[in-house]
Specification:
Length: 368
């Protein structure tokens, strides 16, 4: 069994090496998104085949048997062009799905993009209860019995009752003498973070734009979950008005209506004030849009909200602009002009899926 386990471990390392090699491809495709569980993700990779001998039916001649002619082909019987002819016996090529923990996937992402570990800003730590078996109680399972405390209780009872004989020392624990280890609540610091994903769902944001947003959101969440023990995610969609939605609605809501970006920023600020005080939470808002806003006056309102309310409350605010055939792309220019090189605001422009990797590196590369 030890040899089998060693071979299995080596095989898994080979598979993980293949995943690391192809990680750049997974960053720009949605192959992983339908296979995500609570703690792990199933990664499809090309089938790994071990070489083996294949024997011909008894009495049948062929290469290696009988008188074969020089330069005779040794191709398997039934070999032919893909998709041609009737049903045959040639094996097809299949993908192998390997389950990889999300923490391990985040580590691969960090190595691939050279991401630094995040340092929580200020004193943003929550106190959470962590149990340690440092208490005692008189009832419990035998696996938690405290032998020394049980003996001490039995010895004290024996002496107090006058049954102790120094010539024949004997201590027999009774039911009331038993002592068991018990968990005692203890407060411990726990870094916590909240991610706000805000997306424009107006008529100019189509399916391809949403797929790019979905890719960015998946990898952002995967990385941040590896950096914080407690991570909460809030989803906001907006056209001319903004509203809170769940994960599925965020990625599948149909596009319609105009665009008023300030509505999303106002709702984000409201949720921050009500549920995520800046003294206790590391806050990461991400906004995705094609750059269209309904008026210059609303853009001025967005700049005002960012400068006076949002940026002072967050670790970093990220704006990801997705190219659309109907979007002007003006909003990124306005933000860059208003805030310049302010490290609290990061903006990116993604024209196609292949640029998702550089956008994620820009968002997470500062380690804020």
């Amino acid at each position: 069994m030890d040899r089998i386990e060693a071979d299995r471990a080596r095989f898994r390392e080979i598979v993980r090496g293949r995943i690391r090699t192809d990680l750049g491809r997974y960053l720009s495709t949605t192959e992983l998104l339908a296979r995500v569980g609570e703690q792990a993700v199933s990664v499809p990779i090309p089938q790994v085949e071990l070489p083996r001998f294949e024997f011909a039916p008894s009495g049948e001649e062929g290469p290696g048997q009988g008188g074969g002619a020089r330069n005779e082909s040794s191709s398997p019987r039934g070999d032919g062009k893909a998709g041609e002819g009737a049903a045959g016996d040639v094996l097809g090529q299949h993908a192998l799905e390997v389950e990889v923990e999300l923490d391990e996937l985040a580590d691969m992402l960090g190595r691939e993009l050279g991401l630094p570990h995040i340092q929580p800003r200020g004193r943003r730590e929550l106190e959470s209860e962590g149990a340690r078996y440092s208490g005692l109680r008189s009832r419990g399972p035998d696996s938690l019995r405290h032998a020394r405390r049980t003996f001490s209780a039995a010895l004290r009872r024996t002496i107090a009752s006058g049954a102790w004989d120094p010539a024949q020392p004997r201590v027999v624990p009774e039911r009331d003498d038993l002592r068991f280890r018990a968990p005692r609540p203890a407060l411990r610091p726990q870094s916590s973070a909240v991610v706000f994903h805000m997306m424009d769902v107006s008529g100019s944001m189509g399916r391809e734009q949403k797929e790019i947003v979905r890719l960015e959101a998946f990898w952002i969440d995967t990385w941040l979950r590896s950096q914080y023990r407690n991570l909460e995610v809030v989803y906001i969609v907006h056209d001319a008005a903004a509203k809170l939605v769940d994960h599925d609605t965020f990625f599948h809501l149909r596009e319609s209506g105009g665009t008023r970006i300030s509505s999303a920023y106002e709702l984000c600020l409201q949720v921050m004030r009500e549920r995520y005080p800046q003294e206790q939470w590391n806050v990461y808002p991400f906004h995705y849009s094609d750059g269209d806003n309904w008026s210059a006056r609303d853009t001025e309102r967005c700049v005002e909200l960012l400068g006076t309310e949002l940026l002072p409350r967050v670790n970093q605010f990220c704006y990801g602009q997705v190219r659309s055939a109907y979007g002007s792309g003006q909003f990124k220019k306005d933000l860059d002009l208003a805030f310049g090189a302010d490290p609290r605001l990061v903006t990116t422009n993604v024209a196609e899926r292949g640029e998702v990797m550089s956008a994620i590196r820009a968002f997470l590369g500062s380690g804020r």
